Structures are given as structure tokens and as C-alpha cells.
Amino acid sequence: QVQLVESGGGLVQAGYSLLLSCAASGRTFQNYVMGWFRQAPGKEREFVAAISWDSDEINYLGSVQGRFFISRDNRENTVYLQMNNLKPEDTAIYYCAATTALLWHDPDNWGYWGRGTQVTVSS
After folding, report:
1. In sequence order, what are the residues at sequence separation of 6 or more whose Cβ sits closer than 8 angstroms to the Cβ of residue 28?
2. What is the pLDDT of residue 87?
3. Among 23, 72, 79, 116, which is most buried by a count of CB atoms within 10 Å?
4. Helix (H) and strand (E) counts for the chain?
5. Which pLDDT band, with edges at 50, 70 and 90, does 27 fall under?
6. CA–CA dist 83, 32 (Å, integer)
């Protein structure tokens, strides 16, 4: 089992930044691809970003490319999502997730999830 706990969400104005963190415990953190998903009210959960165990492979949702940056610290068992130039359409619950699968965009391929942290961006 892998336990994931997100933090860092909040209410910000458009154009501002937030840093989300996800602390992992349980099985060996570096065995897993780590990722972030989000779910807005009335919408399906969508892939935001993911990073391989060695940080060599990173993938982003197109609409956040260049604004969001994912990173991980395997010594601290933590993954981060730096979110810059936030937009109202970024408003959602953000979830941290872990997987060993090769296909990252499908939420069904991720076996471990945190409870989420709310991000609200006002215009």
C-alpha cells in the first residue's frame, strides 16, 4: 500500500501561483510513477502531469504546459506541482496519484490516490 496526502491548495486570484505537495508513505516511493489529476464540478477526473521514478520522463496536460511544473524528491518521498499563472479554469480538486503502469493519462491505470486538495482561482 501507498498512502498519499496532498497539501497546498487554496483560494487565489487569477495570475497567482500555488505549490501543491504530496507526501507518500508505505511502499518504496521511487518504485512509482507519480502524478497529479484534477476534477472540476460536473466533470470527469483529468490527467494534469506525471513524472517517472528518476524524473527523466515528464508529461503534462496541454492546457497547463508551460505554466505547471511537476517535480519529485525521492529522499523526502514527496512530489510537487508548481502552478503558475493560474486561471479560473484551473479550479478543481487536485489529486496526487501513484502507478507502475506505462500509460499515464487514464485514471483507471493509477492504483493509489490521495484525498485531494481544493484549488480555487477567482477572476
Report:
1. none
2. 98
3. 79
4. 0, 11
5. confident
6. 22
Give the pairing type, strands 117-122 and 10-13. parallel
- For the chain, what is the mean pLDDT? 96
DSSP bridge pairs for 62: none
The torsion of the CA quartet 48, 52, 58, 62, rounded to 10 degrees, works out to -20
HSE-up (13 A, CA, CB side) for residue 43: 14
pLDDT single digits (tens) 94-115: 999 999 988 899 999 999 999 9
The DSSP bridge partners found for residue 96 are 36
Residue type, position 74, single letter:
N
Q: What is the 3-state secondary structure (H, E, C) of 51-66?
A: ECCCCCCEEECHHHEC
Can you say whether the dihedral through the CA atoms of 79, 28, 108, 41 is positive or negative? Answer: negative
